Amino acid sequence: MTSTNLPPQPTSQDRALLRTTLLKLTAGQKILCAVVIAVVALVWYDLLNRLVEFGRGINYEGLHALGARVVTLLKEYNPFFWWAVVALCTLIIAYFLYGFVRAALNRARARHLREETVQMLATRLSEPAREVLRWSWRDPREPLTVGDLQRTAAELRNGRYAKITLARRQAALLADAPSAPAGAKDLPSV
């Protein structure tokens, strides 16, 4: 097959256009997530220092009724206890931050595209890139979403257009193939 017979492929301009469009559509959520994470991290850093300092200031001498050995053990393992509390709280905060970020990204992914954005993409994307966008659009009865564009960008990077054209060629071969005669022996699989 010569290079003139190859079907057109999505271009780097298609990928760049999708990347900049997605950046414009998701920048707000990304900035919000970064600001929230930074603020929570700063506040938690201040609080964890206060918590550790509080732990250092605890006096276990009032527990002398438990014995000198117990008081000595409490004093010795006191810093480890407070750092374990800090680690546990850090994991809990990280879990909630992760949930916040996932929810924000899911909201952004579910946001419908404005008609102007779809019009701009329809006029500036090449036909192969539009084909991948149509393939990525999960339900054409629903409006296109940011998630559909994200999937399109990922599929363009992974060579989806070549897979679509290969599937079409294979479907055409199967549709045009003559029927096997009745009683024909099964052929070995390839």
Average pLDDT: 87
- How does the helix and strand content classify structurally? mainly alpha
Helix coverage percent of residues? over 70%
The number of helices is 6
Q: What fraction of the residues are assigned to beta strands by DSSP?
A: under 5%
CA-based gyration radius: 30 Å
CA distance, first residue to last residue: 24 Å
Which runs of at least 5 residues are low in confidence (pLDDT < 50)? none
Q: Give the count of structural domains.
A: 1
- The coarse overall form would be elongated
Number of strands: 0
> Helix and strand string, N-terminal first?
HHHHHH
The biggest sheet amounts to: none
Keywords: Membrane, Transmembrane, Transmembrane helix
Protein name: Poly-beta-1,6-N-acetyl-D-glucosamine biosynthesis protein PgaD
Transmembrane segments: 21-45, 80-101
Organism: Pollutimonas thiosulfatoxidans
Account of the protein in words:
This is Poly-beta-1,6-N-acetyl-D-glucosamine biosynthesis protein PgaD. Keywords: Membrane, Transmembrane, Transmembrane helix. With 190 residues, the protein is an all-alpha fold. It has one domain (10-171). It is 72% helix and 0% strand. It is built from six helices and no strands. It has helices spanning 12-56, 68-110, 115-124, 127-136, 146-157, 160-176. Helix 2 (68-110) crosses helix 5 (146-157) and helix 4 (127-136) crosses helix 5 (146-157). The longest helix has 45 residues, at 12-56. The mean pLDDT is 87.
